[in-house]
Amino acid sequence: MYVPLNVDKHWISMCVNFVSRSIEVFDCEGLKHTKSVDPFAVLIPRIIKAVHSSNNSKLKVKQYIMSVRISLFSCSVSYVPMPLLNKSSSDCGVYALKHIECHLLGLDFSLVNDSNIREARQKIAYDQWEAANDHVLISRMAQFTPPKKITNPVVELE
C-alpha cells in the first residue's frame, strides 16, 4: 500500500508491505518522522483484524496478531537513503509522488532530482487537468453510487 503523508507542511511517502510487515519511508529531505510514521506500524495488525472480522472465511490472524504483540504491535520501519533533495523547499509533494512511482516501477530513485522536478510537477498538473476533462471519466464518476452495505467501523482486538 502506497501512502503519501503530510508531516508538518512537508510531504513524504511510504510503502506499507503487509506480507513482510515492513514500511519503507521516502523523504526528499532525508529526515526521520517517527511520530508520524510509527502509528502506521501499529495500524497493520488492526487492518488485518478488520479484514478478518468483515470476512467470515477461515483466515487465521490470531497468530499474526500475537507475533506483532510480541514486537510491541509494530513492524519494521526503514528510511530509504537518498541525497538531500528539494532545495527549493516547495516540491516535496511532487517528490513524494515520484518516489512512489519509482518504487512501484522498480526504477532508481536517482531519476528524480532537483534538475528535473519542475518538469515532473508540470506533468502531474497536466495529467490532473486532462483527467478532469476526460468525458468518459466524468460520466463514470456521475454514475457512481457508494456501496449500500455499511460495516461497523469499530474493530475489537483480542
UniProtKB/TrEMBL annotation:
The organism's taxonomic lineage, starting at the top: Eukaryota, Viridiplantae, Streptophyta, Embryophyta, Tracheophyta
Record domain Ubiquitin-like protease family profile: where: 1-103
SUPFAM superfamilies the UniProt entry points to: Cysteine proteinases
Record keywords: Hydrolase, Protease
Name of the protein described by the UniProt record: Ubiquitin-like protease family profile domain-containing protein
Similarity field: Belongs to the peptidase C48 family.
GO molecular function: cysteine-type peptidase activity
Organism per entry: Brassica oleracea var. oleracea
GO biological process, one term: proteolysis
InterPro entries cross-referenced by the UniProt entry: Papain-like_cys_pep_sf, Peptidase_C48_C
